[in-house]
Design goal:
alpha/beta, 5 helices, Purple Acid Phosphatase, chain A, domain 2, five-stranded mixed β-sheet
Length: 203
Amino acid sequence: MSSYVEKFPADKVFFWSDLHFFHNNILKYQPNRPWADVEEMNEAIVENWNRKVPKGCTTFVLGDVALGGKGRANDVANLLRRINSNILLVPGNHDNYIFDNKECMARMRVLPPLKEISLLEGNERQHVVLCHFPILSWHRYAQGAWHLFGHTHGNLKSNPGLSMDVGIDTNPNQEPYSYAEIKNIMGAKQIQFVDHHTKDTNY
């Protein structure tokens, strides 16, 4: 079952979601976005991204890169070309237009909507389940697997166990989360056994 689980060095990966490039109304819906207009927002996101994530590292973007459809695809591609890191996209509900744009596709690798990875830190491995949408019960959660998601813009009232919304609107610095930051946040959480799975089972 582990053959499809890709492995990544933990110190070389970052996680982000729900950038919403070119989405005018997001500035109204999300008051913690401190920008006057989408042009300022777009530039700030690119700047924050490149400042936080070094060249040669990988950013997992868990959906909703932009809003604006096919008419904005080339503009989105121009922004993505300015990003220093590798980009792996777990698609969200606003990303369909990206698949039809060669320039966008050339700048990122599109993953399945549900992706499992393993992060390597020395002799330790951290299993992570990635999806744009929050999941109530995920593979290996009872054994300590993390679930990282987006979509809810920090507005989900509760989420079970070792799960976390990594969207831009959950980060006061409007920047990607590093593995170390997520590990610190997860360290304050507890596994919740929400169904028949327990730490002693491995379905």
